[in-house]
Design brief:
Elements (H helix, E strand, L loop, with lengths): L5 E10 L2 E11 L4 E5 L6 H9 L6 E6 L2 E2 L5 H7 L1 E3 L12 H9 L6 H14 L15 H13 L5 E5 L7 H18 L2 E5 L3 H7 L2 E6 L2 E6 L1 H4 L3 H12 L1
């Protein structure tokens, strides 16, 4: 029996004549932190959209803990245990920071008082508790990134999809995010699949890395093997180091 929490099996997606994702397959084991990397336009966010139900796959399937989630609506996939962040951060600008997170908490906790308590605890973990009453629209980019993570965590996911949450952060802010994800993984066993261009974060967090290029999976393996893979160096890491 397959023990994977997430199984992506030969998923493909085309946008008219553009092949965005071509027969991609990989698995994420429970409790692991796994990275999905590749050049811009490689198809990484499209894969996230196929997993989370934002887009429908042309072929292939996605399973969560063995149950097929392909074809479900995004809210159904969220209820099944998949939380995600978005590369373009768009909080509910007119709501307070706390109320943004309460919206996520209500997925699991129908009582508003309990949802507010859970939301506040998440904000404290992410260092946003002191800003809980300010409008989300007033936050800086680093704080909006942390709010995006907080909203996803509030849904109590089994699998957390992180789409470039460290892009644009200063090194100290990146280190803080890395430590938060390490703690969540160690203390709660949270499984994480992340898209990230900040290779320092990828190497610090990931147990396994999958590499996409032109919609195809070109390499999978341990971080120390991926950074020496000739195909990966040619299409991605070489240009990152340049």
């Amino acid at each position: 029996m397959n023990s994977a929490l997430l199984s992506v099996d030969a998923v493909s997606k085309r946008f008219r004549g553009l092949r965005a994702v071509a027969g991609v397959s990989f698995e994420v084991q429970p409790g692991h932190i796994v990275a999905l990397i590749g050049p811009n336009g490689a198809g990484k966010t499209t894969v996230f959209n196929l997993i989370s139900g934002t887009l429908a796959a042309d072929s292939g399937e996605v399973r969560l803990a063995g149950a097929r989630i392909t074809g479900l609506r995004p809210d159904q996939i969220c209820a099944a245990g998949v939380g995600r962040t978005f590369q373009l951060v768009k909080p509910f600008a007119g709501l307070s920071v706390l109320d943004n997170v309460v919206v996520g908490a209500l997925v699991r906790t129908p009582r508003v008082r309990e949802a507010r308590g859970k939301a506040l605890a998440i904000l404290e973990r992410l260092g946003l508790a002191d800003r809980r009453n300010v409008p989300a629209a007033t936050l800086t980019l680093p704080d909006r990134k942390r709010l995006e993570v907080a909203r996803a965590l509030a849904t109590e996911p089994r699998l957390l999809l992180l789409d470039e949450v460290m892009a644009g952060l200063r090194p100290t802010e990146t280190d803080r995010m890395i430590e938060v994800f390490r703690q969540l993984n160690a203390e709660q066993g949270l499984t994480i699949l992340l898209i990230e261009h900040v290779m320092r974060a990828v190497m610090a967090l990931s147990r396994e890395i999958h590499v996409l290029h032109h919609g195809e999976l070109i390499a999978s393996g341990a971080p120390e093997d991926i950074v020496r893979d000739p195909a990966v160096l040619e299409c991605y890491l070489g240009e990152e180091a340049a």
